[in-house]
Amino acid sequence: QVQLVESGGGLVQAGDSLRLSCGASGGIYSRYSVGWFRQAPGKEREFVAAITRSGFRTNYADSVKGRFTISRDHAKKSVYLQMNSLKPEDTALYYCAAEGPGDNLWYLTSVGAEYVYWGQGTQVTVSS
Questions:
Q1: Is residue 30 helix, strand or coil?
Q2: Considering only CA atoms, which of 82, 39, 38, 77 is closest in space to residue 58?
Q3: N or C: more exposed end of the chain, with fewer CB within 10 A?
């Protein structure tokens, strides 16, 4: 059983930056790939970014490419989402999720149904 806790959300202005954190406990952290998803009011949950178990490969939604960066720190059992040049359309509840356990160091997925554990979410609000 893996528990995930997100933090770092807040209210910012367009063009500002935020860094979200996802802390993990339980399980063997290195056996999970991790993704970030978001859900805006009245919209379906959407994929944002993902990082492999190794941390060497990442994937991003087209809407955030070039602005967001996902990374992980195995020693701290944490995954981060650095969000720059934020836009009002980035406003959403952001969730981190873990896929696994597994041993494929290069596996990535943007499909939410493949993620087993989810955090409670952290709210990001971007004002114009």
A1: helix
A2: 82
A3: N
How far apart CA 97 and CA 121 sit, in angstroms, is 10
Average pLDDT of the chain to the nearest whole number? 96
Residue-wise pLDDT for 72-93, tens only, equals 999 999 999 999 999 999 999 9
Q: Which residues, at least 6 apart from 60, have a Cβ–Cβ distance to it below 8 Å?
A: 48, 49, 68, 70
Tell me if 6 sits within 8 A of 96, measured CB to CB: yes
